[in-house]
Design goal:
The complex is a heterodimer. By secondary structure, chain A is mostly helical. In chain A, 74% of the residues lie in helices and 0% in strands. In chain A, α1 (2-35) crosses α2. Chain A is elongated and about 75 Å long. The chains are: A mainly alpha, B mainly alpha.
């Protein structure tokens, strides 16, 4: 039992660390217009490629240095967090709502509803996600809305598949039968009895999906298919930093660390919650 | 793991003889492959035609008249009804004519086939790296199971899985391109080198021609993108193989081997590995297609002249015929990989062999 409590303690630490980072990031994103030291779009060619504060040649006020156009790296990271978390929240929530609803309906109602939804999932899964996203972005054109639509259209099956299986397992349990005997209707049973029991799984999936959304946005802004290049995004900053990596490593490194920690936190939070909800470990 | 896996197994058991099983698998899989590809072709063709914005207008210099646009549309066959366009396109594809790229005005087939070798070499190198890394991790983890070394491997696996290849690529660029610059961070080969190659399989051909200087240069370019692609797959292989190995280690025949006095390392390598590898093999097949998908962004990141890099250019430039060709080729590769894995499974599965 000793090892098990150790696992739990480690899992707890992981959970709190990642939740803490995401909270911090969320607050920073909300307050970005007020706490960012500089205007993220302000260019000043005389202040181009300033190093971060501890290096020789740094300018006060530009904590993490500037890029080749003299824009403040820290302010751009803070404003980039707004874009990243916006996509994570919006795309994650819509994907979750659509996928989980379809999964719940298929898993609980069964019959022809399940037939239709399951067939749809199978067809979707047969199509490789990369090809799907290339096609969708080609069709929808660049931009934040396209990214969100692409994530929702491609990833709803992640939720639908898992929730369907879970709802099916829950539906076979005694408490569902007794709720029905007690006079609850089918939809009532689904919403009042099944939904609360699949919710933990949904929360885990949602957390993981948000991490995916952040990375998808970063990749698409890296290849310049997200919002316009001037607007600060982590992926856009990384793309800029990649070209000037030998002259100004900080333009690449700081957004990269932020992105890395964020993606890692979402996935560790999801895994941590999974362990926490898992009755075997509890 | 695979839907309908159990049903498939039942069907296979009824047929006797390996040859029959393999033949049957081959035929079913070939048929589904053809259907899948046809489905992809139809979807790709029609989805792409919904693109808002006229790609023809983008090809012409500003100030081009309506007439110019109409003439060019007619040249590319874009003025005809959709179904007719589809018919023309399918007829062309069946004769190996995938249309003409709008941006470069070269045949799509030539462009795509010119880039395919670079992507194939990169993917296969990444696969080999993933198998070596993941396999080693699994073997070490099994050998020292329950100990601190297994714990360390689990943590490393977890990290490798949490972060996608794109971020690993950037981390590698910083580590081995900037901090300790031992590898090249962009391109496929140093541009100033003279290449005596007749094919586009640079890595392979440099070996055949015994040009180890060129080979080393090419590997120094491919190493980081391949490693970035390999890391997540290595973690998956490491996890699953370790799990199967540990399960196998408790089986009677392994205990028997141990009582014969064989050392732990030999028991793992000679006895357990063969039986534990099968589930991993199936998974590697599925995951390999994800890895190939990952080349799209990784090639971009490392300015590697492959199919994926071209795909992004095609999307940015709205080069519809080229996008179509690339997506179809990727779909062909994915289905081919799945086919090969199914066949390997049929050949290697001892239960099917002795049926």
């Amino acid at each position: 039992m000793d090892g098990r409590s150790l696992i739990r303690r480690r899992a707890g630490l992981r959970l709190w660390l990642s939740a803490g980072w995401l909270m911090l990031l969320g607050i920073a994103a909300l307050l970005a217009p007020w706490i960012a030291p500089k205007d993220p779009l302000a260019q000043d060619l005389f202040l181009g490629r300033l190093p971060p504060f501890w290096m020789a040649g740094a300018e006060p006020g530009y904590w993490l240095g500037t890029d080749s156009l003299g824009r403040d790296v820290l302010s751009r990271i803070l404003h980039g967090a707004r874009v990243a978390l916006l996509v994570a929240l919006v795309a994650g929530t819509i994907t979750c709502l659509i996928g989980a609803t379809l999964g719940l309906l298929a898993g609980f109602l069964r019959g022809w509803v399940d037939m239709v939804i399951s067939r749809l999932i199978d067809i979707w899964m047969a199509f490789p996600p990369v090809l799907f996203s290339i096609l969708l972005i080609a069709v929808l054109g660049p931009g934040l809305t396209s990214i969100i639509i692409a994530i929702v259209v491609i990833d709803w099956t992640r939720f639908a598949r898992v929730v369907r299986a879970e709802a099916m397992a829950q539906g076979a349990m005694d408490y569902v039968a007794s709720a029905r005997v007690a006079g609850r209707g089918r939809i009532g049973t689904m919403v009042r009895e099944i939904l609360p029991n699949v919710l933990p799984t949904v929360v885990v999936l949602l957390t993981l999906e948000m991490g995916i959304a952040v990375i998808v946005e970063a990749i698409l802004s890296f290849v310049n298919l997200s919002i316009s290049t001037d607007d600060p995004t982590w992926g856009g900053m990384i793309a800029e930093g990649r070209t000037s990596i030998h002259q100004a490593w900080w333009v690449l490194v700081f957004p990269l660390i932020t992105l890395f920690l964020t993606v890692l936190s979402f996935s560790q939070l999801g895994e941590g919650l999974k362990d926490r909800f898992d009755p075997v470990l509890r | 793991m695979i839907p309908g896996g159990a049903a498939k197994q039942d069907m296979r058991h009824r047929v006797t003889g390996t040859g029959m099983v393999i033949l049957r698998t081959l035929l079913t899989r070939l048929l589904t492959t053809v259907i899948t590809l046809a489905g992809v072709a139809v979807i790709v063709f029609f989805v792409i035609r919904v693109v808002p914005g006229n790609p023809i207008a983008m090809m012409l210099p500003p100030g081009a008249t309506e007439e110019d646009i109409a003439r060019l549309s007619a040249l590319y066959g874009l003025d005809k009804p959709l179904v007719t366009q589809f018919g023309i396109w399918v007829a062309g594809v069946l004769q190996g004519d995938f249309g003409t790229s709008i941006t470069t005005r070269q045949p799509v087939l030539d462009l795509v086939l010119g880039r395919l070798p670079a992507t194939l070499e990169l993917s296969i190198m990444a696969l080999v790296m993933a198998v070596i890394l993941g396999g080693t991790a699994a073997l070490i983890g099994t050998r020292y199971r329950g100990g601190r070394r297994e714990g360390a491997i689990d943590v490393a696996n977890g990290m490798a899985l949490s972060v996608p290849d794109f971020l690993w690529g950037l981390v590698l660029i910083l580590l081995f391109g900037v901090l300790w610059p031992v590898f090249h961070i962009s391109g496929r080969v140093t541009p100033s080198l003279e290449l005596p190659f007749t094919t586009d399989f640079y890595l392979f051909e440099s070996l055949i021609r015994l040009r180890f200087d060129l080979w080393a240069d090419i590997v120094a370019h491919m190493f980081m993108p391949a490693l970035a692609l390999a890391i997540p797959l290595a973690a998956i292989i490491g996890q699953l193989l370790k799990q199967s190995l540990k399960e196998t280690m408790n089986l009677d025949y392994v205990t028997l081997a141990r009582t014969k006095g064989y050392g732990e390392a030999r028991v793992i390598l000679r006895e357990a590995l063969r039986n534990a590898a099968l589930p991993t093999l199936t998974l590697v097949g599925v995951q390999f297609t994800f890895l190939i998908g990952g080349t799209v962004i990784i090639e971009r990141l490392f300015s590697y002249e492959g199919l994926g890099n071209m795909a992004i250019d095609a999307v940015v430039n709205r080069d519809l015929p080229l996008i179509q060709g690339i997506v179809l080729l990727f779909a062909l590769i994915f289905t081919a990989v799945n086919l090969i894995v199914d066949l390997l499974y049929a050949v290697l599965n001892p239960r099917l062999r002795h049926a």
